[in-house]
Design brief:
By secondary structure, the protein is α/β, with parallel strands linked by helices. 34% of the residues lie in helices and 24% in strands. The two termini are 46 Å apart.
């Protein structure tokens, strides 16, 4: 009989599911680290929320533990890497708070539109002031949604019913998917310039941190209203405070902050700011949902059934892992490269395994490519298990091919990624058993290590190009570590690929102004 330890409070519905499955269940929510370390070796499953810290030390002695279930979304309190190395599956419950967070977003939007918290405080304070709190109808207004995953889609559905026009920006949302949702797929600039309300539903990544700053606030409609129930830091709070003080932004509603509790209250203390203490998942239903969801999936793991919502993967068979492990870094690098080269609006991903690699089990490798592709925009939310689910959610079609023969290599992996406008291709291999190399980009031949900061420059093959490019980079303090040039024929189109120590903001725009350059792009690996 499997034994389950529940070390943080969860709703009774989740506990009952374990008992109904015939498992032995212990609920104890006040362990010290030493107590949990001594006890965990006797259990098959551990259920936590945010209080219990499942450290590497605890995992190291968990000899019978098969699965850790987190009744919630984040797994910051679980050492996932240690669990993976130990062969322990880590599950979370990402869907349980979808409706609660979507409904909070809508409540925030309506509160902004009608000045509800401010009017409430005024009346509670003894005043009868109707003139100061004139609002506006949301019907007929334009809502911009950044991020069309589960929560963003639910917000769109509800606000379309309230007669709003919904503009959507998501690098992985296809036109077909947008049409089925009833939203208008646009670029970020249209979200910024045309929206009366903007709400963000993305993870906090290098790309989304400070996504909206002083420059973006200036371009917005005067009187725009902003909502963030996703992750703190997507809005530049200092710049936003100034935009509110100037009247450019009419108000903001925040449930999340760069640090929690917030260290800087400048924005919070403004009368135009509506704020709540991270209540997105704080509903009775959401708490029950995450407990039930994680219990269902943990039970599947313990019964040997197909499960979902793993934030890592069960270990591969030793012989399979040994054979394909040299390709791990190459696969993820090809995905990251392709995702940055082809965004936004990726519709198709094709992966071809040629030569010796085609004879092995390649499903795991394919998910690494997909993980890299999506991670550029979705951050650490993406892993090998949920990558396929997230791709399907965004309407990306995935194909995989195997060909036993290839010229010039023992093994070669080809990746093609398409948007509605263009297709890009990459090829890579592994040399000396573990060194990843990219050998081809859009038909141009190279031999590069996929790491660090890269700048690609499509240009005309003629004398003086290298000097012109080097001068521009030198003027901006960018050092070139390595350079390769691929061309199809002399005097035709060529592609220059530079490894640089760093890439400053705006350098791509400067490069594209060079006479011989047709396009420039930056890749971070």
């Amino acid at each position: 009989m499997a034994k389950v330890l529940i070390s943080d409070p969860i709703t009774p519905a989740g506990i009952e599911l374990f008992k109904e499955a015939g498992f032995e269940v212990e609920v104890k929510t006040d362990h010290t680290k030493e107590e949990l370390t001594a006890k965990i070796k006797n259990y098959d499953a551990l259920i936590v929320r945010s209080q219990t810290k499942v450290t590497a030390d605890i995992i190291a002695v968990a000899d019978t533990l098969k699965v850790i279930g987190r009744a919630g979304v984040g797994v910051d309190n679980v050492d996932v890497e240690a669990a993976t190395k130990k062969g322990i599956i880590v599950l979370n419950a990402p869907d349980g708070n979808t409706i609660s967070t979507a409904e909070l977003t809508i409540a925030m939007l309506m509160a902004l539109a009608r000045n509800i918290p401010q009017a409430h405080a005024s009346l509670k304070g003894g005043a009868w002031d109707r003139k100061s709190f004139t609002g506006l109808e949301v019907s007929g207004k334009t809502l911009g949604i950044v991020g069309m995953g589960r929560i963003g889609s639910e917000v769109a559905k509800r606000m379309l019913a309230m007669n709003m026009t919904v503009l959507a920006f998501d690098p992985f949302l296809t036109a077909e998917k947008a049409e089925s949702l009833g939203v208008i797929l646009v670029d970020l600039n249209r979200i910024i310039t045309e929206s009366d309300f903007i709400t963000v539903h993305t993870p906090l990544t290098a790309e989304t941190k400070g996504l909206f700053g002083a420059k973006e606030f200036t371009k917005m409609k005067k009187g725009v209203r902003l909502i963030n129930c996703a992750r703190g830091g997507i809005y530049d709070e200092a710049a936003l405070a100034e935009a509110i003080k100037s009247g450019q932004v009419a108000g903001v509603a925040l449930d999340v902050y760069p640090s929690e509790p917030p260290a800087d209250r400048t924005l919070i203390d403004l009368p135009q700011a509506i704020v709540t203490p991270h209540l997105g998942a704080s509903t009775k239903e959401a708490q029950e949902n995450v407990a039930v969801d994680v219990a269902v999936e943990v039970i599947k793991v313990l019964k040997g059934e197909v499960f979902k919502n793993a934030v890592n993967l069960p270990p591969l068979r030793n012989e399979v892992r040994t054979a394909i492990q040299p390709f791990f870094s190459l696969m993820e690098a090809l995905g990251k490269f392709a995702g940055q080269l082809a965004k936004p609006g990726i519709t198709k991903l094709g992966i071809s395994f040629l030569g010796d690699i085609s004879k092995l089990e390649t499903n795991y490798l394919a998910t690494l490519v997909l993980k890299g592709l999506l991670q550029a925009d979705l951050g650490e939310e993406v892993n090998q298990v949920n990558a396929i689910y997230l791709a399907k959610e965004r309407g990306i079609k995935i194909t995989e091919h195997k060909l036993p023969d290839v010229t010039g290599f023992s093994s070669l992996v080809k990746v093609s990624v398409s948007t509605m406008k263009e297709t890009h291709t990459l090829s890579g291999t592994v040399i000396n058993n573990n060194e990843a190399r990219i050998m081809e980009i859009d038909g141009y031949h190279f031999d590069i290590a996929p790491a660090g900061n890269l700048i690609g420059i499509n240009h005309t093959d003629q004398p003086g190009v290298i000097g012109e490019i080097g001068t521009i980079l030198g003027q901006h303090g960018i050092n070139i570590a390595a350079m390769q040039v691929g061309r199809i024929k002399q005097g035709g189109n060529a592609l220059m690929l530079l490894h640089v120590d760093s890439a400053t903001a705006g350098i791509i725009e400067k490069l594209e102004k060079a006479k011989t350059v047709t396009k420039a792009w930056a890749i971070s690996l």
